[in-house]
Amino acid sequence: MQTKLLVAGILGLGVLAGCSEREVILPGERLGVRDILQDAPQDDAAAVNTTVPANVPAATNNASWAQSHVSPFARIPNAALSSNLTQIWSVSIGQGDGRRSRIITDPVVADGRVFTVDSDGRVSATSTAGQPLWSFSLVPLRDDQSDALAGGLAYNNGRLYVTSGFGVLMAVDAATGAEIWTQRLQTTATGAPTVFGGLVYVIAGDSTAWAIEEEDGRVRWQQDGLGDVGNVAGAAPPAVNDRHVVFSFGSGAVQGAFRQGGLRLWNADIVGARRGFAIALVDDITGYPVIDGNRVYAGNHSGRVVGLNVSSGERLWTAQHGALDPVWPAGGSVYLVSDLNELVRLNAEDGSQIWSVDLPGYEPVRRPQRRRDSAFTNHGPIMAGGRLIVASSDGFLRSFDPSSGELLSQTEIRGGATTRPVVANGVLYVVSTNGTLHAYR
Question: Residue 44 domain-assigned?
Fold first, then answer.
């Protein structure tokens, strides 16, 4: 007992001795640890909208919309289209969106036919008068349609090129749907191909870039990138000009290469995220690379859009907006649907914002106390008839003034849009969530 008291006394003296030491106060200014965060500029800082004349290209009465607009040779800068749209017909293309499968393929139009893919992987051709022509399934005999998503489409010289989540690239006769050749890509291929100069370019598995001979399906070359497990369904169509091809991968990397031989020229990572938003955790390149002149514009899902030099990959500017669809460059401006469901106009020279307007956001809920867990999707924009057009899953096709962002008109889409709109011969085509192809003139 005496031993315990002795130990306790020694410990008490140690504590008292420690308390008797004077605290050393370091000299210098005191700053709050949170001040730097509170004073830092926010990603979503409000910018004042301004009306700046838009150098809208002259309208073109195009006969086709054969491929994605990411490449200059395939982009119609301003397709001719009436300002007052009326639905002229609609036809089912198969299965619509479901809980486990979605339509992720934009339609293409060529040779008097509209080509589509439904959520079950069925490829269809419909005449521009609305008559079904042919269809076939991309699902292998021993698989189920729910095992993989469908891919993308591109048309060139009488052939339709089709990618599939089951890991193949096919060339089929556009008039009959008959198979010409098939190339196995070893992994999923859910992005649209790009066809140019005798080669078909495609990205498989969000991590491998392929260049395949258009004539017989033989592999010319391939490049490896980095994938990511947290990606958005659908890969980016490669952007191509006379000399270069630009790919993007699931890791958030953009890569430039020589088009013919595949020699890699540069790599650029699109990094950065919008703070305070859960969707910023997804860093996939959803604003697919778009070539315009000597520049490439690309954006990620998490809050950044960049302008790059197409030859060197040098970053010219960064804008604090995400891009959920590929941008539309026109007349010195870059238009995009942002990660905050806004239609945004940027200055193509330096990336500064000119204006932004709200698009449909979260679906309304009956009980206010419930969390918002379902959002509308806005597809586009494209430029047609001298205005910007966005198709939304809330059931409307909207037109906006490129100079000011003012809403000019809206047209009902029964079922709501699930693809980007395309325009050919003065007719706008869009697929709705219930698997219906709509035509407007």
Answer: no
